[in-house]
Amino acid sequence: FAAATDVIDVQMRAFAAGDQPRPLLPGPALRRLNSAEPAPIRSTHQTLTVGATPGVPGRDVNFEWLSRLSLAPGAYRLRFSVTDKTTGMAGSVFADVDVPDFAAGSVSLSGLVLATDPPPLTTGAETLGTLIPVVPSTQREFVATDTVIAFARLYDGDTLPLPSTVVFRIVNGAGATVWEHPVSFEASAAGSPRGTDVRVPL
Questions:
Q1: Which of 35, 108, 174, 192 makes a 20 to 30 Å CA pair with 72?
Q2: CA within 13 Å, CB half, 46
Q3: Which residues, other chains included, contact 96 with Cβ-Cβ below 8 Å and sequence gap of 6+?
Q4: Cβ burial, residue 56 (10 Å; 0-12/13-18/19+)
C-alpha cells in the first residue's frame, strides 16, 4: 500500500466448490464483476483507512486483516479481494477450503494456527470473538527472540469409547520426536462436539 493515507475496501466471499467466481483485475481501469457471477453463499466487507508507518516517512504500512465467515460443513471456494479507492487499483486471490463436520467423527483435529506475542499490526481481530483464544498470523519467518505459539483444537464428536489422553508429537525430518504433549479430555454428549485447546510454544 502507498505511504499516503488510502481508503481500502477488503472483501471475502464464499462460493460453492464448483462455482467459478471472477477475479478482480488490478489496474486503474478496474474491471467490475458482472451479473453473470454466481451468487456467494456468505460474504463479509470492510472499509479501512490506511496510513504511513508512524514515525517512518515513505515506508509502506504492513498489517493483517482478519475476518470471519460462518459456514456449514462442506467444500467452498473463497475469494479475497482488495480495492484501493484512492488509486482504483484492485486484486484478488482464491482459496479452496473444506469445512469439517467435527460432530461426525469420534476424534478430529482442527487446522493449525500460528500466533506471535506480541501479535503483528492487525485489524479485525474482534470479529473472531471467542472462536479461538489467539490472534492468528500469516507470518512464517521468525528470529530466535520471537515468541511463537502453535494452536489447535481437538474435538470429541460422539460417545464412542475413547482414550482419556491423546498425545501430540512433533517429529523432525528423520522421524525422531522433538516435542510431545499429552492432552486429557472427557467424552461429550452425542451431537455436541467438545473442543480441547492445545497450545504448543515453538
A1: 35
A2: 14
A3: 17, 75, 76, 77, 78
A4: exposed
Cβ atoms of residues 65 and 138 within 8 Å:
no
Q: Is 128 left (phi over 0), alpha (psi -120 to 50) or beta?
A: alpha
Work out the pLDDT band at 78, boundaries 50, 70, 90.
Answer: very high
24 alpha-carbon distance from chain centroid: 21
pLDDT of residue 76: 95
Beta bridge partners of 196: 154
Per-residue cell: 114: 500460528
In the 8-state DSSP scheme, what is residue 141? -
Tell how far CA 15 is from the center of its chain.
17
DSSP, collapsed to helix, strand or coil, labels residue 99 as strand
Residue 104 has, within 13 A of its CA and on its CB side, a CA count of 6
Contact of 107 with 166, CB cutoff 8 Å: yes
- What are the pLDDT digits (tens) for 133-179? 888 888 888 888 889 988 888 877 665 555 567 777 888 889 999 88
Go through 116-134 and write b for each residue having 16 or more CB atoms within 10 A of its CB, e for each that does not.
beeeeeebbeeeeeeebeb
Tell me if residue 24 falls in helix, strand or coil. Answer: coil
**Do residues 137 and 119 touch, judged by C-beta distance below 8 A?**
yes
